[in-house]
Design goal:
Helix content: 25-40%
Distance between the termini: 52 Å
Shape: elongated
CATH architecture of the largest domain: 2-Layer Sandwich
CATH superfamily of the largest domain: Dihydrodipicolinate Reductase, domain 2
Number of helices: 12
Radius of gyration: 22 Å
Structural class: alpha/beta
CATH class of the largest domain: Alpha Beta
Number of strands: 18
Order of helices and strands: EHEEHEHEHEHEHHHHEHEEEEHEEEEEHE
Largest sheet: 6 strands, parallel
Strand order of the largest sheet: 3-2-1-4-5-6
Number of domains: 3
Length: about 400
Amino acid sequence: MANFAIMGFGTVGGGVAEVLRMNAASIEEKLGEPLRLKYILDVRDLSATPYAGAAVKDFSVLENDPDLDVVVESIGGAKIALEFTRRALMAGKHVVTSNKELVAAHGKELLAIAREKNVNYLFEASVGGGIPVLRPLFQCLAGNRIEEVVGILNGTTNYILTRMVKGGIPFGEALKEAQAKGYAEQNPAADVEGLDAGRKICILSDLAWGREVLPENISVQGISGLDLKDVSIASGAGYRVKLLGRAMKLADGTQCAYVAPHLVPADCPIATVDGVFNAIMIRGNAVGDVMFYGRGAGDLPTASAVMGDVIDALQHRGKRRELGWSESAQLTGFDKLVMPWYLRGGFTAPADCTALSDGAVVTGAMTAGEAKALAEKLGAEALLPVLQ
């Protein structure tokens, strides 16, 4: 029998327990042995729940149990979760997490500990919720030279943008609707300011090229400053506005990662992804473009990915998964990226620009720095990158 524990019994932790309850027989068949939820570590009183017999409040119980194989970290944040993850790995436990903040900021260190202790540190659910994307990236696409990763990485902002496009309502109203439906937190900054997407694109970049990219070192722009007018103009011109995380390997060998709202051509598969759904496109030099699509959050979708990692960790007890990243990536700044740009304002369309409606244009290819300088010169009221 294999034993695992859950640290933090909130939405994700509760979902993992529910997936085990629903699918225990099929999980046992895949593993070749029963899987038992031995401990639940949480500060709350679980005595009135069906999990009372597994509830503990002292992490050292997990740390010192030689029969505990896997620890699921669903505490969140990068404080207590970091301490307990370090200690669990040092104690020879496999650790599985959905915690993108922890993986993005401390993944390099934690993977190094896992390597030293010959255990697995797995985090499929940290990007895309229930969408399998990280394992395909480092395993199924291993025969490719990855050129670019781009995607809708946050369901809350995608829901808000969908309502702005299809409902014709401004950002503030769409945000309140998302909060009422439980898609957005009362403090939505991590979502609407792009921080959540920034952490996820860093993890994708780390795995794609094996070099560490920290969230504080990339450009991140959210959607809180978007004007409904620009969303409407873009739709009328055959584009959709989407908040994208984007990572690229450039011709000179450097990397770039950033998050920003983009104009996306309507014929691009990502443009049709609406509501709380996520989509990640990966471009490989052999396979071309592939896209992964599905629910990027929620208790059971995320728990599905977590449980997949639990099974994977147990199946690789003898020989751990070889994944991780090493030294820091050499980054090219966002201002040096070359692409077309959307500008709007009361100005005459400059040469080499395509005029849209209501005083908006799409420029030819230029760097972000050049686009900002042009926008300032023209007195443009909006400036957004255009995905090619």
